[in-house]
Amino acid sequence: MRAEEYIKILEKVAERRGWKLNPDSEILMELAKGLLKNRERYGLAYCPCRIVVGKKEIDRRIVCPCVYAEEDIKDYGRCYCALYVDKEVFEGKKKMPPVIPDKHAEFLFTSSK
C-alpha cells in the first residue's frame, strides 16, 4: 500500500473519532510512511514516534491511534506524534504545541510491567 492510500484510511479513523489529520502535508506523509513501515516490519501500525519493545502487553498501547491519543488531543490539541489534531488546530484557530509530554515513556518508567 502506498502512503497516499493509507492516508485515506487514517482520514476515516480521524473522522470517526471527531479528529482531523495534521494539516501539514509533509509531516502527514512522513507519518503515514512510518506507520506503513512499522506495519511491514511488525505486522501492526505502531506509532512511528515510539519504540517497539517487543512485549505485546506494552506494545499494544502504541498501535495507532495509541491509547494516549484521545487524552492528548483533548489536552493539547494533538496526539504525541501530531498525526491527529483537533478541529481548532486544523482550522488554525489554536496553535499546536511543538512538543507534548510522552505518556508512553511515563508508563514505561513508572509501571510494574
Number of helices: 6
- Name the CATH architecture: Alpha-Beta Complex
In total, how many domains does the architecture comprise? 1
Full CATH superfamily name:
Ferredoxin thioredoxin reductase catalytic beta subunit
Helix content: 40-55%
The helix/strand class is: mainly alpha
What would CATH call the class? Alpha Beta
Backbone shape: globular
First CA to last CA: what distance?
A: 34 Å
CA radius of gyration is: 14 Å
| Average pLDDT reading | 94
- The CATH topology is what? Ferredoxin Thioredoxin Reductase
Low-confidence segments, given as residue ranges, are none
Strand order of the largest sheet: 1-2
Main beta sheet strand tally, sense and closure: 2 strands, antiparallel
Number of strands: 2
Produce the secondary structure layout.
Blueprint (H helix, E strand, L loop, with lengths): L2 H15 L2 E2 L3 H18 L13 H4 L9 H8 L7 E2 L1 H4 L12 H8 L3
Antiparallel strand pairs: 1-2
Helix pairs in contact: 1-2
Features:
113 residues; single chain; 2 strands; globular; mainly alpha; 4% strand; 50% helix; 6 helices; Ferredoxin Thioredoxin Reductase
Kindly describe this structure.
50% of the residues lie in helices and 4% in strands. It has 113 residues and is mainly alpha-helical. It has one domain (3-108): Ferredoxin Thioredoxin Reductase (Alpha-Beta Complex). It has a two-stranded antiparallel ribbon with strand order 1-2. It is globular and about 40 Å long.
Quick structural summary:
The chain has helices at 3-17, 25-42, 56-59, 69-76, 87-90, 103-110, and strands at residues 20-21, 84-85. It is mainly alpha-helical.
